[in-house]
From TrEMBL:
Coiled-coil regions listed in the entry: none
PANTHER family per record: RING-CLEAVING DIOXYGENASE MHQA-RELATED, RING-CLEAVING DIOXYGENASE MHQE-RELATED
Official protein name in the record: Glyoxalase
Domain VOC: 6-141, 152-270
């Protein structure tokens, strides 16, 4: 059995959490499945978007940084997020939708399998015709028809000075396998079938990226359960990596580690999802883990009130 069972979630920075919510729910048609705060800094929002349940492999999350500037693009960064759709017809749908809604995007690729776009803060995505996340469920309230909804995280692109260091981390420590070249990069996969956990690693020289709005903070990978997470933590330590040890995030448990280029990777426990498929739409109340509940009044005073779901 592989140590890692595909992607879990990706976490980014946003300067404008209200505009962020509008884009990901109304433009991309994702469900806001969790409205909480950064547990390490509860003065900022932490929003999770995903499928009907917020299943692992579908979750895009954002930390709010109201004073953040522009990202200064450089090396040693997670550069692009892949999202899967079911068909070429879905790419045509998204191309037309982006034209109508004024979203920056590319033409569909010459082979008819991908379409790139950016969100309002310059975060880069590519939509690909590929396998959906394992537990993806269409959301019935999405403004996007079920046949064309985004079906989870696909290939993640990483740019680093020393790709051989990232390769060692993936292949030797986490038991990924190399699938060969993908243009100028090398593609690695965590599962032998399904194609839902790909990472493509590119070599890039230059200065380190300076993060800001629209940059990616970390990539989280799925681990079966807490016992498996403990075994992987032990393995990371045995290979000389510094880890946080197991951290209880309330919604799942995690271990954080930086590979040798400095890319932050989270290992997070699997689960059925962040909410039930038939749960009511999230309103204005913020969900807090138990240890932050006594601080609720102060936390809510420090946050702007987000618009209610329509």
């Amino acid at each position: 059995m592989p140590l890692i069972d595909g992607h879990h979630h990706v976490s980014m920075y946003t300067k404008n959490v209200q505009a962020n919510k509008r884009f990901y729910t109304q433009t991309l048609g994702l469900r806001l499945v969790k409205q909480t705060v950064n547990q390490d800094n509860p003065t900022m929002y932490h929003l999770f978007y995903g499928d009907a349940t917020g299943a692992p492999g579908t979750e895009l999350s954002f930390f709010e940084l109201p004073r953040s500037g522009h990202t200064v693009v450089g090396t040693n960064r997670i550069a692009r997020i892949g999202l899967s759709v079911a068909s070429h017809e879905s790419l045509l749908y998204w191309q037309a939708r982006f034209l109508t809604m004024g979203v920056t995007h590319s033409a569909i690729s010459a082979d008819g399998t991908s379409l790139s776009f950016e969100d309002d803060e310059g975060l880069t995505f590519v939509i690909v015709v590929a396998a959906k996340a394992r537990r993806w469920q269409a959301w019935s309230r999405s403004p996007v028809p079920a046949d064309h909804q985004l079906q989870g995280i696909h290939t993640m692109a990483v740019e680093v000075k020393h790709p051989e260091r990232f390769a060692t981390f993936l292949e030797t420590v986490l038991d990924y396998r190399c699938l060969g070249n993908n243009g100028t990069g090398k593609r690695y996969q965590s599962v032998r079938q399904g194609g839902v956990g790909d990472i493509t690693v590119y070599q890039r020289e230059g200065r380190m990226q300076k993060p800001g709005k629209g940059s990616i903070h970390h990539l989280a990978l799925t681990v079966a359960d807490e016992a498996s997470l403990a075994r992987i933590n032990d393995r990371l330590l045995a290979f000389g990596y510094d880890t946080t040890g197991i951290v209880d995030r309330h919604f799942f448990k995690s271990v954080y580690v930086r590979e040798r280029n400095g890319i932050l990777i989270e290992l997070a426990t699997d689960g059925p999802g962040l909410i039930a498929a038939d749960a009511p739409l999230i309103g204005s109340e913020i969900e807090l883990p138990p240890f932050l509940e006594p601080q609720r009044e102060q936390i809510e005073q420090n946050l702007i009130r987000l618009d209610e779901e329509e």
